[in-house]
Amino acid sequence: MATARSFRPLLKKVTPSAGTAIAKRGMASKMAKYDWEDPLNMNSLLTEEEVAIQETAKSFSQSKLLPRVTEAYRTENFDPAILREMGELGLLGATIQGYGCAGVSSVSYGLIAREVERVDSGYRSAMSVQSSLVMHPINEFGSDAQKEKYLPQLATGEIGLTEPNHGSDPSSMETTAIKTSDGWVLNGSKTWISNAPVADLFVIWARVVENGEKGKVRGFLVEKGTPGLSAPAIKNKMSLRASITGSIFMEDVKLSNDALLPKSNGLGSPFSCLNNARYGISWGVMGALEDCLARARDYALERQRPLASFQLVQKKLADASTAVTLGLLGSLQLGRLKDKGEWSSDMVSMMKRNNCGEALHHSRVLLDILGGNACSDEYHIGRHAANLQVANTYEGTNDIHALILGKAITGLQAFAN
Question: Among 164, 260, 378, 391, which is least packed by CB within 10 angstroms?
Answer without folding.
Answer: 378
